[in-house]
Amino acid sequence: MTEPTTTPKTTGPAEPAAPAEAILLVGGKGTRLRPLTVNTPKPMVPAAGVPFLTHQLARARAAGVEHIVLATSYLAEVFEPYFGDGSDLGLHLEYVTEAEPLGTGGAIRNVASRLRSGPDDPVLVFNGDILTGLDIGALLDVHRTSGADVSLHLSRVEDPRAFGLVPTDADGRVTAFLEKPQTPEEIVTDQINAGAYVFRRSVIDTIPAGRPVSVERETFPDLLAAGAHLQGMVDSTYWLDLGTPQAFVRGSADLVLGTAPSPAVPGRPGEYLVMPGAEVAPDAKLSGGTVVSPGAVVAPGARLHATAVLPGARIEADARITDSYIGPAAVIGARTTLTGVVVGDTAHIGPDNELTPGARIWCNTTLPARSIRFSSDE
Question: What are the backbone dihedrals phi and psi of residue 161, each rounded to the nearest 5 degrees, phi first?
Fold first, then answer.
């Protein structure tokens, strides 16, 4: 497909940019991520040793953002005790909780009263489940120089059927919004809505208040139909939707490896990250972006690849774990093999079990020794 021009033409130098403020949409229930989200809101699930939201906040701050409003809903009480006013990150954070879920557009409108921007100033909006290397400053520059009402980060994917397509013209101006096409005829572009936007402040006030609104299905198509200028910027850096357990495991490993950029990773990029307070036996082998959290124990002979081990979990001797997520205080028995498995909080998997890709072990579950095993010829 022909790659569109992603930087609009300008007639002169842009005016000096003032610091932007941002809205982070962190109210989703994370149903597809269960059991990771049974006791923890999706943005607070650890990735590379810290809550995923920490990576988003740190990247926004590195781009010059100073004021961020968090639009919360599910388990809203968890966020403020952890992040406080944001001063530890060099930010000023505010929290607005939805009494009832309002969707992406409704959540944006619901926090409008906390914004400080003037009518023509830019306001960044980020979905709370996207891991990306987006150049935030470049997106702001595109927004300012194009004079757009809304600017969207677009990413290219090989199979766009699970996403909303956003075709653009030769100057990067959005021409349509096509939700999750299924037939070859419907797939007119490989550009998808990547979940990061810049709104002209006054546009936010046009979103209906007090009811659920989807920016993807209502706000953006309505703006386009009304003749508003929506600008797309294709950014081909790292992008991953963390909506599934497998994606979340991959994202955490990529952060540890340094494939996904973040200033919030508490250590240097490498094959593994062992947090202070963790115990790892000298002959245990960690690789592929594995992280072992504080209070976790990895016993002798264990082999962990691209796996996240959360606080207080224990991996017994000679366990083999690949592409998996081990919840807080969970126990994985000796010689047990896990591949592509998510283990919920305080679950206990006994020795000599074997679980294959896609298995999810619910919180507080106990699997006895040798209760599940798959032979190589099954």
Answer: -65, -25
Q: Where are the alpha helices (DSSP H) in the chain?
A: 52-62, 79-83, 103-110, 136-146, 201-204, 220-225, 245-257
Plot region of 346 (φ>0 → left; ψ -120 to 50 → alpha; else → beta): left
Per-residue model confidence as pLDDT tens digits over 170-216: 999 999 888 766 666 667 788 888 999 999 999 999 999 989 999 98
pTM: 0.86
* Residue showing tokens 């929290």: 95
Tell me the C-alpha distance between 294 and 226, whole Å. Answer: 53
For residue 101 the two structure tokens come to: 């879920």
Cβ neighbours of 176 (radius 10 Å) = 13
> Closest Cα to residue 182, out of 153, 168, 212, 161?
161
Please report the DSSP string for 178-218 in residue order: EES--SGGG---SEEEEEEEEEEHHHHTTSPSSS---IIII
Check the CA dihedral 109-89-287-334 and report its sign.
Answer: negative
Is the Cβ–Cβ distance between 63 and 89 less than 8 Å? no
Which residues neighbour 256 within 8 Å (Cβ) at sequence distance 6 or greater? 48, 49, 265, 267, 269, 270, 271, 272, 273, 289, 290, 291
The token pair at 1 is: 């497909």
Residue at 195: amino acid letter: G
Q: Which two tokens stand for residue 311?
A: 């606080």
Residue type at 116? R
Angle at 132 between CA 98 and CA 71, to 5 degrees: 10
